[in-house]
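*** Backbone structure tokens ***
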Amino acid sequence: MNITGPAMQAAVLKVLLDEISGRLDVVKRQAEHAFTETGATQTVPKLPDGTKIATVSLTGGGGQSAYVDSENDLMAWVLAEHPDQVELVIRDGYKKALLDHAKKAGQAIDPATGEKVPGIGVKPSKAYVSIRFKTGAREAVAAAWRDGQLPSVEIVAPAAIEAGEAA
């Protein structure tokens, strides 16, 4: 088996993936700014033929976001305080309940006792751009791209890399 062809494709696709990922981050920030500037919270982009492809929304923000910041600390606390909630791992439903309660309370506390729960952090949530595709939209976008119908969408244009910048 010849490895040169698949290795070349993997390397090129990795460069393109990184470029597209970076471009998506920039465009999402631009969309977030546009949503904020206009006061809109949602829009539905369409292909040139009028096909609605997604619901793009500005979601989140203005609330709290809870997360597990130390799996070990949380496990030790649950083992000591609620051992019935531990199998080999903390039950997903219980962890979600703790996170939901922490988000609502603005701090990581046990809903049953009010005691601090180690291993869970709470921070202000950040708004982000959400994209939910309509049924069949991914295929429609791919077809429109292949047919050259999306010239205004800058998909891949790898930036020039300065000497010494490559890692």
